[in-house]
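Can't paste images in this forum, so I'm doing it all in text. The chain is below; anyone willing to post the predicted structure tokens underneath?
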Amino acid sequence: MDTIVVGFGAGLIALVLGGSAGRYLQRRSQGRAAATADEILGGARRDAQLMLTRAEDEARAQAEVYRDREEATLEHRKIEVGSLGDRLSQREATLEQRAANLAQRETLIIERERALSDAHRDVETERERVRSELEQVAGFDAGAAKQDLMRRVEDEARRDAMVLMRDLEARAREEADRRARRILTTSIQRLASSVVADSTVSVVALPSDDMKGRIIGRDGRNIRAFEAVTGVNIIVDDTPEAVALSTFDPVRREIARLALERLIADGRIHPAAIEDAHEKAIAEVEQSIRDAGEWALLEVGLTRMHPELINLVGRLKYRLSYGQNVLNHLVEAAKIASMLAAELGVDPEEARRAAFLHDIGKAVSHELGGSHALVGAEIARRFGEDPAIVHGIEAHHNEVEARTLTAIIVQAADAVSAARPGARREAVESYVRRLERIEEIAGSFSGVEQVFAMQAGREVRVVVDPGEVDDLGASDLARRISKRLEDELQYPGQIAITVIRELRATDYAR
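Text version of the structure:
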């Protein structure tokens, strides 16, 4: 520290000496120009020595003050370090005390856990003893009692669930029936359509019975030529003034009918005339098919349809389904679907188009295998129809599950058009067979005593044994019968299942 102070003083003296010497020489040169250089240097040395002594004293004094201040600071820090050591020692002692307390608490907890475990073991032992005594007194074990209790709870829960389900289904069915009746009634009232179904016959009237011989020809030449050219069988029987045409293709049958009527009107029947009449009939039927397709398109208000689809729609003019003309059915279903969609807030254009094309597969179903719904969907897809329209076609008989509201509307429109009075007729054999199948399915359930299919199979009344089927079971039985009928039968519209449960008690007074 002294070395630093001495160096600092020497530098200061040198700086001061340099400045003083300059000033002194300047004064001496101005005041005493004749003084010699030795006198000037002597005076400068004295001044410098005096300044050096003064600077050393000042530096020594400052060094003493700095040393005293540093010593005081060190002493203060020593005191602080000592205090900090004391506090650390106190904290260490406190931590040791806490560790000892925690060890004591852990020991107490372990002892209490051991005591609780022993007490729990004693309680379990006592419980088992009491349970054994109760089982001996009651005569059955706890497992059987538990199972019996669970069975009773399960029965009660099932009964409550069936009651709740019955009430919910009743309310939902009432609301759904009310809204559905309103929508269907509104739509059907707006539909102007013929009540009696059209029917196409394959019987050609003759002016006289002599014409039968001319149709047959010498040795059957004419009839063989006619059948070979048209692909239609002519049935000549004892029916007066009429012959019948038989084929599975309605278009060929219509061509043959027109050709035969043309030949009868002309009177000249021979192989060449048959071929000419057949060609003219083909052209006439093709034109009639195109006209029918365009008429149907205009009737329902549709546009932008592929020409091949229009021709296929026109072919349905000569196709019948249970006595109902398929083309008229498509037009009717399209109108119903449009009105239903409007009532439900759905796009009427999409529903009308899907319903109009839903039976398009029937135009070629006699030529291709498979369901007409799937065939029609493939045809519509091939000719660029929208996927929503294709799905409505393929799902209208549930071959594919309906995933859109349009598909459900098509199903409803198809059912309404097919189920209205006079729309279709069925063969007596298939009608009786369907009623027998309905009664057979309903009678196969346990507890059923009698089954009556009424109103042409649209209502089924089931009489059950009241001792075997309760009120809740009757609701469940009606639901199971309806589910099985939906899975196993094909029918237009819907079938109402009514389960009748009647308990009669009779006694005699003697």
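The beta strands are 203-205, 233-235, 242-246, 320-321, 324-325, 448-454, 459-464, 496-501. The first helix runs from residue 2 to 31.
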